[in-house]
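Troubleshooting log. The previous structure file for this entry was overwritten by mistake, so regenerating from the original sequence record. Sequence copied from the archived sheet and checked twice against the printout by T.R.
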Amino acid sequence: MPSTAGEIQRRDVQRHLLTLIRDFAAEQSQGERRISDLKNRLVDLQGQLKTANASLEVAKQSREAAEHSIRGSEVELSMADASVHALEARTRLLQDEGLKKNYRHFNAGKTTLDAKQNPRGTLQDVEDRLSDTNFQLDALEGKYQEELRVHTEMLAEVEKRAFLGEAVIEETKQIKELSRYPHCRIIVLASLCC
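Regenerated output below.
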C-alpha cells in the first residue's frame, strides 16, 4: 500500500500542479484580454478626442466669424444710429428754417399790407407763401419718414445679426464645454493602462 499511497499522493500533487498551471494560464489570458480591451478602448477614445477636437476647431472658427460679423454689425448699427440722429437734426433745422421763413414772409406781407393799403392782395400772397412752405415741409417730412423707415429696417437687420452671432457664440461655448469630458476620460484610462 505504501506504493499506492505514494502514487496517490504523487497524482494529487500532479493534479494540483496542473490546476495551478491552468489557473495561471487562464488568469494570464484574462489579463491579456483586459489589456487588449483597454487598449482598444483607448484607441476608440483617442478617435473620439480627435473628432471632438476637430468639432471644437470648427466651432472656434464659427465663433470667430460670428464675432467678426457682430463687430461689423455693431459698426453698421452705430452708423445707422448716427444717420438717424443726423436726419432728425436736419429735419428740425429745416422745420425751424421754414418757420422763420414763413414768419419773415408774414412780417414782410404785413409791412407791404400796411404800405399799400391793399389787404386782400397781400394777405393772399402771404397765404400762398404759407401754403407753399407747408407743402415743402410736408415733402421734407415725407422724405424724413422714408429715410427713417429705411434706417429702422437696417437697424432691425443689424440687431438680428447681432442676436444670431450671440447665439452662435453660446453654442460654441457649449460645444467647447462638452468636448472637455472625453478628454478627461482618456487621461483617466491612460493612467490606468500604464
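The mean pLDDT is 78. Archived copy saved in two places this time.
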